[in-house]
């Protein structure tokens, strides 16, 4: 029975009937659902099964296998050993270079499991699939006596639709400590996401240590107080300083990057520039057009105060910051933001106007000279990073003026920016707010929900997002690297609240990112919701229950 493409093989059905063999389950509750699932007769008992890796014991894959063995031992109460070097009874991880990037093949037999992949990611996604076929208690961190640890015999061959499967986290508006960021990464891992976009700086807080500019965190991480309620309906502030000690040391950044890498997850940092920089201006007022004084922002929204990019010293500041960021993050991409940068200060700043004249930038009816000034900043950053072997991602405002030649565009104001970028030959990550902003309400009954920024993105809306349009050429489709959801945290200040906004919408996102369109089914996904939620319960995750038809 091939469930992946919803065909039932008559021959297989006949064979099963003739041999009195019944597959163990109709439809394994695996999310994101694999490309091909072929169920077979019998089951494998995972309790006490050894995990073997035929490659070198001293590798990231071996570490992954060891962690899996430890977890199995913990929950089953029977020892699963990690064994390096040879194939045998138990779960065997075998490197197979004929499989592409993140693909894996998982064959579960009665006595032995074979998991083939060519990369750490492929092995991890295969293990995550195997894990989902075990009872939900495998997500807990204690002995689960009395569980049946059998896994149905099957053959699963799987690979993702998109190579970029991202999730964003804003730690500037509200800070989340290293432990929570690791937990966020664990949640991503379960859902086979491979990229964390870490939004580290904004008007309301600078959260990454930069050795050359200690005041960025010393002053820029702390705001005097915070707006209560919504921007347009409130001028009430809470009177409480926020942000003392709420930034990551460079060692902590390295710790998170390596924790993610061990799970096949790349961390892309964002230094949002040249707007969304009030926290940096508060620390170093000479970086602004007016010279300040500035305060770390206490409200949400878009500040007119941005970096004075007409001054060479500001550009040097940015290059210094990005140099340290490159030391910390090995990712191919560095996100340079570029969103929501008002031009009003530049229009009145002698330094910025002098730079505009020097560069010969002009209004052209479509964009102002100041838009082209921002394009100059992006392109300089692109060149600077390219010299260090890196590439830029920027929000879709980078299309305004002159897009930098090698920029990857993150399309957030809908999908039209992404479509235009693809037409221009640029790579694109689709993250439209109407479908994928996880700070939006999950229910129309707002009175039953924690205060959110607004909007309405229920789980089915996330699930329905399709990044390709009928009029896209194959070449344009090839430029869509993938899909990401964004977690802005103006209204999210605690760990439980963060998880509540994330789950189960992340599960819906994971199917958009992973499944081929013909393999996506809202009904099948909904049918898996109770099992999915049972896993979240076992892991101790907070999640929204609307999907279960239960508004508690
Ligand atoms: C954004 O939501 N300002 C990228
Ligand atoms: Zn200026």
Which descriptor suits the 3D outline? elongated
Identify every distinct bound molecule in the structure, by name, code or SMILES: acetamide, zinc ion
Low-confidence stretches: 1-18
Proportion in β-strands = 15-25%
Can you give a write-up of this model?
With 552 residues, the protein is of the alpha/beta class. Helix content is 33%, strand content 16%. It is built from 18 helices and 17 strands. It has helices spanning 10-18, 60-76, 120-132, 178-190, 215-218, 250-261, 278-283, 312-328, 344-347, 350-359, 369-386, 416-423, 433-436, 459-463, 474-478, 495-502, 505-514, 522-539; strands at residues 36-45, 51-53, 82-84, 90-95, 104-108, 112-117, 150-158, 164-170, 195-199, 201-202, 205-206, 266-273, 333-337, 391-395, 408-411, 428-430, 480-485. It has an eight-stranded parallel beta barrel with strand order 8-9-12-13-14-15-16-17, surrounded by five helices. A hairpin with a 3-residue loop joins strand 5 (104-108) and strand 6. Helix 2 (60-76) runs parallel beside helix 3 (120-132) and helix 4 (178-190) packs parallel to helix 6 (250-261). The longest helix has 18 residues, at 369-386. It is elongated, with a radius of gyration of 25 Å. Acetamide (ACM) binds next to loops.
